[in-house]
Amino acid sequence: MSTTRDTLDDPAQTALRQYIRGGGGFVGIHNAFGTEYNWEWYEGLLGGANYYDHGRNQPGTVVTMGGRDVSTAGLPARWDFTDEWYNLVPFPSRVRILAKVDESTLPEGPTGGSGHPGHGRNHPVSWCQYYDGGRSWVTTLGHAVEAWTDTPMTGDGYFLRHVLGGIESAMGHSPFCQ
């Protein structure tokens, strides 16, 4: 969760691969996308996506893509949240998108300092996939400390419910990637 750059040495990378190949579950949160840039297998674990840029922390509306998955069950169709809305390159592939941000609700728009134009009508923020024998549930959300603490923040309860469902399903305690 929110790691940066190369954090795993060769033995740790091997252990993570073996764990996933043995049917293990992975949950990547927020800056998990800013980690292990030069490791193709890890990028695959993230759905083939990598962090490109983001604008400033700003409010936006998260759109829940159905309520069948345990991580989206009980969430409203739309809920407000504040975050750094990551732009990704490449775009996630062969994944089930669970939530996206409605870019039209971002006051400053989706673009970051590097000029990425955003993802338009399909700007994913959470998805899941079966990968290399295991399970991977990831979200680009989770930047603000308030989302994780008792300090009130709009949408934090929905966010935490979403993450908890992702953790439970990646662990195999609930049906995965429904």
Care to describe what's here?
- The chain is of the alpha+beta class and 178 residues long.
- The protein has one domain (26-171): 3-Layer(aba) Sandwich (Rossmann fold).
- The protein has three helices and eight strands; from the N terminus they run αβαβββββββα.
- The strands form two sheets. Strands 1-8-7-6-3-4 form a six-stranded mixed sheet. The chain has a two-stranded antiparallel ribbon with strand order 2-5.
- The relative contact order is 0.22.
What's the assembly state of these chains? Answer: single chain
Instruction: Provide the CATH top-level class.
Output: Alpha Beta
The structure class reads alpha+beta
Q: Sum up the overall morphology in one term.
A: globular
Helical residue percent band: 10-25%
With helices defined by DSSP (H or I, 4 residues minimum), what is the helix count? 3
* Adjacency order of strands in the biggest sheet: 1-8-7-6-3-4
The major β-sheet equals: 6 strands, mixed
First-to-last CA distance: 23 Å
Strand content: 25-35%
Radius of gyration: 15 Å
Show unreliable segments.
Answer: none
Sketch the topology as an H/E string, one letter per element.
Answer: HEHEEEEEEEH
Question: Could you say how many structural domains there are in total?
Answer: 1
Question: What is the CATH superfamily?
Answer: Class I glutamine amidotransferase (GATase) domain
CATH architecture: 3-Layer(aba) Sandwich
